[in-house]
């Protein structure tokens, strides 16, 4: 055991200080042993020699075909006659004694079997421990603790060499300490004797076996670990000491071997496999580490590399002593060892001093650091003032940004709201278009067999949930129900509105109507009798509308018609008066109100004076000739409903009453020919005066007009619903005459509009035959759907039979719908009306419709109750 002089130790300590925390390469030493007696007796030649302290040379250069280099250079090479002490002192000592300065270290012995690994490591271990003991003795100011532990890895099993228990040790990874062997025995070294005792024990415990090459061949990897802790004695027990803690590993690897060379078998062969495999892993790790610490390093492929991981490129100083046999027979194994050594010398580690602070020392240090930081914060330095100003500025910026955020949020919400509105609008339009396309594309209905469209505009103008969509869009059964409900609803509204309208119209002193339309409120006649023309005026387009409002460009709406303009005409003072019912308003109307009409001065040649009813009628008839264009009647919007008819009717009746009240006398009616070969008397414009004396004439006239109306309905493609309502409501009573006349007049007008060849551009005409045909087609489709809903299966079968529709034929309901109102034969008409009435539930409303429409407005003094039996029977035949 070599003693370490004080001078030498100081040199090491300086060196440790320089190297601590810095990267350094593994120290590679090569030791060439002499030929063993066996090799000598076997006439082995020594092909390897150390030509200097760092180079080993292969001198059998005559060997042909060799591609290996002849000289290998390392940190230090030792000839066969070198003692282990020299190997230690000139090579391993520096690494081994790093532990005294708190730096981990490891010394490996790597080489083929019988190359002298154990021989070398036993010596190095003892020299190192001896030096450590000397170091301890030389540093009495410090307190040292030296712990000894030893393990072996045998067939990939880790065993505690200080324990007689062969229980394998568990290996786990500690985040701070790295790989840790659980329950590993650690003996605190007392003295040299104690060390020798332990080493002997380990040697006895280690797996050793006889092989062909080595009588005492190590069959396991052995690691002897010395852990050294040191603290300055002056701080011990005061809680503020710091401790240096480090370990040094003495690793005696099992020797790589060739089975053929060692002639091993059985247990030895198995041992050799494990040995070679683990050494191969070690070689791989070293080779990868030699190329840099990039990528995955397979430490975990063997217990050996896992345990030695900190020593291989980690926090440790490492020395590898590669032992060689010079014998020619081992040349390949020797070259392999040299290749390993070459790789190892490229591997770098980064060792640093391991200082363990006591808890108290750690707390004290942290408190000191905290006090320093608090002092900096409390110091009213100039810099702090700057911070205050900076903080204030930042606060202002934050406040400003908050404002901007709030404003932007508002704008965003507003924009989102607008987008939603827009999307809703676009969505509705899209739905409308799609629905229209569906209707247009549906070829299931024979257009040629269609007659007219449903009262579709009712939906459009009265359903608050249906704003601007295609009126013909009844998408499902619910819609069909809604359709029927709306009919009734609208009819109720119609009744009240008609009455109010009749009472309310007034004109100002200039002869112009004060009934200004509220734009967009074209609800007056459910889109049939009114429409919004290009001038945004609500116009009555009822063909039977005899009101000379047209000539006056009088505009009106329901909103304004609900207010009656009263008060002094001179002052123009107006008073809003709630609308009254038609019945009580017309006969007993205050003179003051009716005098409002006196100043009316109708337009030139086309107008008439209230004092000249004859001329007025004539003019009106002439006006009607032009109304097709001026009124902008739409086929869809015009004759589609009984409501339309009623509205126009009331206008006409109102004027007649007006004339009578204003003139105060019967006007002599000069029967001038009208456009439609009618005059006032012909159309029964004042039936209350005529009818009493001519009941029989009226009966004949009604029959004639009824036939004429039915034919016009057919040729003008009037909606079936309208036809049904009209047909069933007006059955020949004397009071019906006025309605019959109005219907005739507007149908004649419509027909003329449809078939006027002079219309240069039919597409520009709002009223076209095509539109009416399409509308009628939609109405028939609607009736088809209602058939499914209104009629039971049995009823449908019965009706199909009655109508000559084969029960096995396809699309029976469509066939029936196409046949309804398809000709003008009276029996056919009655049957058609009966079916349609069922479908639209006319029978449930019955005559109440007529009352609701205000159709019983005829003055009580002249009510004829004569009825035609045929019309009675029609209603009675309703299913
Ligand atoms: N440098 C040396 N000088 C003299 N004898 C040596 C030297 N090295 C080794 N020997 C001898 O060689 C034999 C084998 O040595 P050793 O057991 O140390 O080899 P090994 O590499 O450990 O073998 P194994 O791997 O099989 O355990 C021993 O008898 C040993 O005394």
Structural commentary:
The protein is 47% helix and 12% strand. The chain has 879 residues and is an alpha+beta fold. It folds into two domains: 8-357, 3-Layer(aba) Sandwich (Kinesin); 441-876, no CATH class. Helix 23 packs across helix 25. It binds adenosine-5'-triphosphate. Keywords: ATP-binding, Coiled coil, Microtubule, Motor protein, Nucleotide-binding. Residues 434-477, 495-549, 565-635 are annotated as: Disordered.
In brief:
This protein has 879 residues and is α+β, with helices and mostly antiparallel strands. Helix content is 47%, strand content 12%.
Describe this protein with a few key phrases:
879 residues; alpha+beta; Kinesin; 10-stranded mixed β-sheet; 3-stranded antiparallel β-sheet; 21 strands; 12% strand; elongated; disordered N terminus; disordered C terminus; binds adenosine-5'-triphosphate
Bin the strand percentage: 5-15%
The molecules bound to the chains, other than polymers, are: adenosine-5'-triphosphate
Sum up the overall morphology in one term.
elongated
The rounded distance between the terminal residues' Cα atoms is 131 Å
Average pLDDT over all residues: 68
**Count of discrete domains:** 2
Biggest β-sheet: count, sense, barrel? 10 strands, mixed
Helix and strand content put the structural class at alpha+beta
* Weakly predicted, low-confidence segments: 1-9, 434-641, 660-693, 760-764, 850-879
Total DSSP helices: 29
- Helix share, percent: 40-55%
Keywords: ATP-binding, Coiled coil, Microtubule, Motor protein, Nucleotide-binding
GO molecular function, one term: microtubule binding
Protein name: Kinesin-like protein
InterPro entries: Kinesin-like_fam, Kinesin_motor_CS, Kinesin_motor_dom, Kinesin_motor_dom_sf, NACK_C, P-loop_NTPase
């Amino acid at each position: 055991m070599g003693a370490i002089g004080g001078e030498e130790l100081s040199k090491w300590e300086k060196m440790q200080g320089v190297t601590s925390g810095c990267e350094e390469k593994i120290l590679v030493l090569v030791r060439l042993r002499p030929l063993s007696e066996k090799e000598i007796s076997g006439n082995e030649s020594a092909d390897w020699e150390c030509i200097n302290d760092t180079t080993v040379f292969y001198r059998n250069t005559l060997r042909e075909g060799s591609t290996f280099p002849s000289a290998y250079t390392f940190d230090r090479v030792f000839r066969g006659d070198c003692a282990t002490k020299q190997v230690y002192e000139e090579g391993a000592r520096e690494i081994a004694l790093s532990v005294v300065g708190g730096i981990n270290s490891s010394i490996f012995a790597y080489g083929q079997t019988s190359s002298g690994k154990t021989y070398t490591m036993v010596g190095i271990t003892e020299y190192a421990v001896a030096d450590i003991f000397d170091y301890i003795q030389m540093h009495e100011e410090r307190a040292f603790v030296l712990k000894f532990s030893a393990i072996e890895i045998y067939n990939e099993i880790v065993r505690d060499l200080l324990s007689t228990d062969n229980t394998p040790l568990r290996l786990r990874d500690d985040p701070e300490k790295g790989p840790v062997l659980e329950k590993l025995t650690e003996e605190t070294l007392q003295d040299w004797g104690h060390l020798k005792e332990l080493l002997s024990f380990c040697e006895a415990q280690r797996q050793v076996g006889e092989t062909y090459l080595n009588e005492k061949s190590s069959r396991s990897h052995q690691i002897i670990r010395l852990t050294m802790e040191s603290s300055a004695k002056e701080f011990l027990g005061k809680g503020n000491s710091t401790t240096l803690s480090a370990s040094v590993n003495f690793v005696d690897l099992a020797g790589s071997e060739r089975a053929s060379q060692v002639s091993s078998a059985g247990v030895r062969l198995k041992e050799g496999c494990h040995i070679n495999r683990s050494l191969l892993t070690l070689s791989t790790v070293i080779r990868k580490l030699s190329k840099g610490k990039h990528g995955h390093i397979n430490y975990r492929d063997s217990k050996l590399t896992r345990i030695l991981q900190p020593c291989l490129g980690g926090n440790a100083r490492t020395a590898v002593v590669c032992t060689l046999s010079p014998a020619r027979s081992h040349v390949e194994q020797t070259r392999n060892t040299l290749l390993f050594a070459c790789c190892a010398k490229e591997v770098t580690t980064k060792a640093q001093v391991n200082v363990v602070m006591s808890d108290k020392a750690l707390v004290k240090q942290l408190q000191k650091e905290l006090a320093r930081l608090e002092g900096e914060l409390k110091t009213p330095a100039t810099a702090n003032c700057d911070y205050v100003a900076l903080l204030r500025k930042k606060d202002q910026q934050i406040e400003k940004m908050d404002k901007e955020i709030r404003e932007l949020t508002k704008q965003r919400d507003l924009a989102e709201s607008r987008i939603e509105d827009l999307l809703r609008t676009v969505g509705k339009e899209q739905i409308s278009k799609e629905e229209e396309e569906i209707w247009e594309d549906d070829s299931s209905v024979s257009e040629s067999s269609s007659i007219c469209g449903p009262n579709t505009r009712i939906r459009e103008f009265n359903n608050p949930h249906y704003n601007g969509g295609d009126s013909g869009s009844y998408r499902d059964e619910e819609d069909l129900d809604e359709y029927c409900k709306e009919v009734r609803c609208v009819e109720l509204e119609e009744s009240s509105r008609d009455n109010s309208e009749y009472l309310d119209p007034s004109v100002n002193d200039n002869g112009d109507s004060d009934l200004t339309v509220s734009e967009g409120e074209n609800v007056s006649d459910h889109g049939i009798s009114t429409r919004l023309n290009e001038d945004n005026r609500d116009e009555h387009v009822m063909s039977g509308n005899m009101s000379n409002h047209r000539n006056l460009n009088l505009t009106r709406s329901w909103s304004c018609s609900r207010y009656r303009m009263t008060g002094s005409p001179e002052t123009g003072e107006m008073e809003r008066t709630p609308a009254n019912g038609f019945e009580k308003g017309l006969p007993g109307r205050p003179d003051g109100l009716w005098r409002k009409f006196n100043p009316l001065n109708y337009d030139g040649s086309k107008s008439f004076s209230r004092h000249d009813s004859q001329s007025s009628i004539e003019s009106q008839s002439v006006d009607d000739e032009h109304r097709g264009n001026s009124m902008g009647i739409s086929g869809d919007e015009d004759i589609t409903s009984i409501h339309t008819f009623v509205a126009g009717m009331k206008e006409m009746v109102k004027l007649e009453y007006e004339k009578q009240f204003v003139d105060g006398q019967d006007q002599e009616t000069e029967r001038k020919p009208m456009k439609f070969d009618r005059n006032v008397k012909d159309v029964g414009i004042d039936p209350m005066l005529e009818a009493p004396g001519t009941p029989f004439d009226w009966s004949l006239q009604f029959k004639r007009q009824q036939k004429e109306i039915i034919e016009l309905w057919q040729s003008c493609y009037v909606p079936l619903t309208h036809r049904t309502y009209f047909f069933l409501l007006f059955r020949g009573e004397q009071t019906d005459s006025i309605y019959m006349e109005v219907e005739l007049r507007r149908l004649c007008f419509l027909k003329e509009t449809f078939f006027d060849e002079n219309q240069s551009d039919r597409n520009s005409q709002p009223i076209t035959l095509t539109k009416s045909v399409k509308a009628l087609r939609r109405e028939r489709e609607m009736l088809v759907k209602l058939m499914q809903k209104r009629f039971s299966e049995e009823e449908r079968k019965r009706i199909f039979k009655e109508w000559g529709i084969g029960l096995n034929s396809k699309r029976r309901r469509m066939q029936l719908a196409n046949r309804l109102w398809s000709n003008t034969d009276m029996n056919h008409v009655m049957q058609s009306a009966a079916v349609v009435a069922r479908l639209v539930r006319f029978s449930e409303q019955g005559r109440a419709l007529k009352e609701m429409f205000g159709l019983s407005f005829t003055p009580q003094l002249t009510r004829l109750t004569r009825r035609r039996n045929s019309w009675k029977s029609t209603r009675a035949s309703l299913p």
